[in-house]
Amino acid sequence: MNSSAKLEVSRMSADMSSLLASVQQHASKWFAALEKRPVRAMLSGDELRKTLGGPLPQKGIAAEKIAEILADAGMRGTLALAGPRYFGFVIGGTLPAAVAADWLVSAWDQNSGLYVMSPLVCAIEQIAGSWLKEIVGLPSKMSFGFTTGCQMANFTALAAARHRVLRDAGWDVEANGLFGAPPIEVLVSDEAHYTILMALRLLGLGASRVRRIPTDNQGRMRADGLATALGESKGPCIVCAQAGNVNTGAFDPIEKIAEVAKERGAWLHVDGAFGLWAAASCEKAGLVRGVEKADSIATDAHKWINVPYDCGVVFCADEAAHRSAMSLAAVYIVATGSERDPHEFVPEESRRARAVPVYAALRSLGRNGFAEIVERNCRQARRFAEALQDAGYEVLNDVVLNQVLVSFGTPEQTQRTIAAIQEDGTCWCGGTVWQGRTAMRISVSNWSTTDADVEKSIEAMVRVARKHVT
Length: 470
Ligand SMILES: *Cc1c(COP(=O)(O)O)cnc(C)c1O
Prior knowledge:
By secondary structure, the protein is an alpha/beta fold. The chain is built from 15 helices and eleven strands. The chain has a domain at about 100-360: Type I PLP-dependent aspartate aminotransferase-like (Major domain) (Aspartate Aminotransferase, domain 2). The radius of gyration is 24 Å and the shape is globular. Bound molecules: pyridoxal-5'-phosphate. Pyridoxal-5'-phosphate binds near residues 90 and 150.
């Protein structure tokens, strides 16, 4: 380091407080704009690359200036994903308490892999983990881990499953891999989320060698089909069920599935990325009944719990299997005895303190506040369905949760209408194909969506559709 570079370092630290004050202004402006701005992005990739890119500059510039450049680009280059009228994908927003906590997480720069590096974050992770279990009514002894998202939660859960079913067959998969191992039967529904297949692929279990169980007209796994397949299966066996279909919001009959899987001695995994949180609501909890009997569960906090990216959670009934699948002791990692080391439950080693925003979100809402969000979003989804039906459009699913599938007529009419709704900018919805029908998908999962936002969005959808469906 030469002397001018050294000077830079001291200047950079001195400027921290004014820098953070300016960033606070930028962020406040961004949040304030969410309500009024078009939901779609206003700049293209080309425009953004032109503004922000070019060759790496030889010399750096002040952090405050960079924040200003990013904030300007952010006002127009982002979609208002965190805003109240984004209904594309199941995505949630960011609760104020969670954003604030996330800023502290960045300031603290804690590595939450090991207790010795961050007692605070490890303690908060334990509290957040047990609060999440309480919401769902999961056994308090279930182990848990905070992953980047539900993709990695599915991966972690299925790694634990792979460990256990092979260990029961006398095979150590962590030591010996899958070469020569007894084959594992993996049963998934026709409607399994693609992240389940990706997880199986990463684990060497193959995305295509699974046995697919048929589903009903809402996308629910047929328990009788599963029972038949289990009857025909041999050896180590994993069943993947789903709580909350990404198109219809429908739930597999988990209680019945748990019963037949248990009888057969199969490991039951449940993907409940957003649907698991139906458990928070007395009205909706029946949909996930039986989930507490699962061997593993994967979910997201960055969806319905409304924390910033990225945050998924995995729960496991067999702590030893969970730990065996994920931990690998290194000589310089000295176990702290009674304290929990978070890295033992997730694939990542060094890791952001992603449980802290979850703690903040739940602490700010309380049990009742979170239930209110889930119930409100479900009621809003029903309102979308009723209003669009009244306007003469077809709703393709039973609206049991927060998902609505709408057809505006032919596939072309529906696609044209979706594109025009996105362009209009009042709200944003994406397209999907449900059982051969092209549809617009409305997902309601943002804490800040008011009934007025829903009415405003319905008005825009109907106005745009009238123009494009001729
Ligand atoms: C979103 C989703 C996932 C994947 O979650 P990520 O957080 O995007 O990794 C998995 N399963 C279901 C049912 C989902 O809705």
